[in-house]
Amino acid sequence: MENQVIDQSPLIESHSSYPVKRTGNVWSAGAHIITSLIGAGVLSLSWSVAQLGWIAGPLVLILFSITTLVSASLLCDCYRFPDPEYGPIRTSSYIAAVKLYLGETKQKVAGVMTYLSLFGTAIAYVVTTSVSTKAILKSNCYDKEGHQAPCNHGDTFYMLLFGLVQIFMSFIPDLHNMTWVSVVAAIMSFAYCSIGLGLGIAQVIENGTIKGSVVGVPASSIADKLWLVFQALGDIAFAYPFSTLLLEIQDTLKSPPPENQTMKKATMIAIFITAFFFFCCGCFGYAAFGDATPGNLLTGFGFYEPYWLIDFANACIILHLVGAYQVFSQPIYRFFDRWCSRKFSNSEFVNKFYTLKLPLLPGFQLNLFRLCFRTAYVISTTGIAILFPYFNQVLGAKGALIFWPLAIYFPVEMHLVQKKIQPWTRKWIVFRTFSFVCFLVSVVALVGSIEGIVSAKLS
Prior knowledge:
The chain has about 450 residues and is mainly α.
């Protein structure tokens, strides 16, 4: 019997007469995961550890790594239904899995949260790219004029420039055609994480001491300290989960072996690698600067020299986020493409493709609806980023908003249904307790991050 496919706006373009050829393996999936995980979030981890202190900071990083691994493992088994290895029904997207296991009502909630999460990530990446671009200009300015020079640069122009690049990038058809983007982005991720880590270690050696304290950066009041701690939890939450893309990535894998086995291996490898970088970057950054730890390790100018290395690291960030923006935006593009195609099946504006051939380039298909929608999407993310260009606060709010519902609640609920775990049994209590604790973390992180955004906007 042929495999059935529950298809709800996956990254991969699927046609009934031309089924998708799945060729992915552990390493391609790992590259996609690393591209999704190592992004803007890693740059704020030193600041997060600084707010939490030497005991709570490293412990929270470890706990988030374990939580992400558990959540991803549960979600890997939801790709096929009813059996996680040999079930005849595939769920090629996160939203499709929620519909199959939990019903249409929760599917709608998951859909809103998923696309809100992807949209929020795109906004955060616009902000981060602008910050890194300014850092390159500042680094060169400081090298020429001295560390006390003003060297001020605005945000808007660089956000608009990044948006222009993304308008052109947004016409990559699907994730199969983005493997090269993910590979390049993963290489860039390793590069700037390694540079940040190396500079942190070098600074600690130069200082001859490990800075920081058990309680972290002091604040003027207990309330202010709590706001910063809550915001730090949001920043860490932003760095880790990739649940919204996991099943999309898993749908690229060839079988045999069963996709869930391959995906679990890829997930374990990717999370282990990224957790190591996260832990080292967070802890060595705090050890190097203590209470003066900047909000962004590579753009806050805790490091000034060597300026060319700072420039290179920020260039790697920019290149990485050019690709990562597309990885997180493609599901939104695909959803609206499919929805409008069904809704307006007779519309040439929505469904007609034109073949364009430019000199020295292969021909490509142009659709007027895609041109307009994707351009409007990029403009909207860029516009919101211009209104709220606050790196740590934006990352914290986005991370807190989606951490519990998407990374914890739905994977746990789907696992309970799939394994037919009865209420009030030992496993049921363990999973529900796990979910509730993560819910509390998400709530306090969201409150702290929103307070940070409001305070920054009013100051």
